[in-house]
Amino acid sequence: MTRKNTEQLHLGAFIVAGPGRPGGWRHPQSEDGWLTPDYYRRIAQTLEQGCFDLAFFPDILAVPNRFGGSHESQLRYGALGSLRLEPTQVLATMAAATNHLGLAATKSTSYYEPFDIARGFATLDHLSGGRAAWNIVTSFQDAEARNFSREQHIPREKRYDRADEFLEVTHKLWDSWADDALVADRAEPLFADPDKVNPILHKGEWFTVDGPLNVPRPPQGYPVLIQAGASDRGRDFAARWADVVFVTHYSLESAVAFAREMKARAAAHGRDPRHLKILPGITPLVGETQAIVEEKRKLLSGLIDPVAGLTTLSYHLDVDLSVYPLDEPLPHLKVPGVTGHYDEMREASDKAGLTLAEAGRMYANRYEGDFIGTPDVIADKMQEWFEAGACDGFMVMAAWQPGAFEEFVRLVVPELQRRKLFRTEYEGKTLRDHLGLPRPERGAWEGKSARLEAAE
């Protein structure tokens, strides 16, 4: 993929509404204001100062117990899901503190209902002036199912069936109001034009929803949709529905191959491939000098216990890694969980000959893509990936919060701007404006081809 000289990359920030990485929260410059609004307002203002496209919050609906059948390691090490605030409420706090920053939250199609999701993101889009985004997940853990009155999670072959229908219903609900349906004519009187607000009367395999929505059509038409499915079915789901794909890669080669595949899948669904933005996650480690970088890396590595990484990897793979020897390689597995994380660690383990303990330490303190160095070194690598067609930008993750975001904005963003690879100011108002995405007309979702029946 050849890029025009005028093209610029996009930046999102991957923020954990909790302690973040297992070792990162122990960093001496990490702050523990996870339960306070000022903590998130400050991160949001830092990102807006750096002209980031969006802030993105992952989520989890359980304290995982996949490693050894216990919550102990998650809680002891502050690992994934040990503390996680509800993300849309955090975004409402950040929205009030910013004017431009996009606001993305994760919600599961397995444990929520379309009306609630459509209403919540339409509300956020209105209250933020068109900055809302929904990261769509199907979830995969039985631990989450048991928090929603179910013994087991929906089988893999069915959860994307439900997700496809879920997306159809949410789009129908967002379209249940015409853009000009809200009149608010006091003299007439005519609050909303009844001819322009319509029930959806949806009856399907998973959902029966009458509608209409009780919130007008969102300012963006539809909130921006983010997806991170790495399985074959997940990739096809993203190619049909998503505006942004979030992924992680160990190498430039795997990133290029993935981006080419996803753009081709989007085209197969009748979409303009340019309207599917690929943002791989990276965890930059930056310093003013290489000596400072090495000292930071040594410090962070010393804060990690291998079990802290393995307990998180067990959750992501949905495999209990506690049953395998720590001094032997990562086993070859059929992964019921997140395929992309296994592929990333499989590649890393095979190339570096890691033991399971070393893989756990790496996973807890990994630097996806190896973006480590002084600002010019990191900018060089970002430029290389961008110009090679591996991505349309990056989702920046923090080794510790909030300081690592502040360092990236202070040190790396100016270098990207100097190279004209990144904006120096916001030019539009909405998140779709930032991403260079058109505002979809009412009913535009129906133009996407029906999902391909791809076997898992």
UniProtKB/TrEMBL annotation:
Protein EC: 1.-.-.-
Taxonomic superkingdom: Bacteria
Domain Luciferase-like, first and last residues per copy: 18-390
Gene3D superfamilies given in the database record: Luciferase-like domain (3.20.20.30)
Keywords, alphabetical: Flavoprotein, FMN, Monooxygenase, Oxidoreductase
CDD domains: Nitrilotriacetate_monoxgenase
MF (Gene Ontology): oxidoreductase activity
InterPro entries (alphabetical): Diverse_substr_monoxygenases, Luciferase-like_dom, Luciferase-like_sf, NTA_MOA
Enzyme class: oxidoreductase
Pfam families reported for this sequence: Bac_luciferase (PF00296)
Family from the record: Belongs to the NtaA/SnaA/DszA monooxygenase family.
Protein name, entry field: LLM class flavin-dependent oxidoreductase
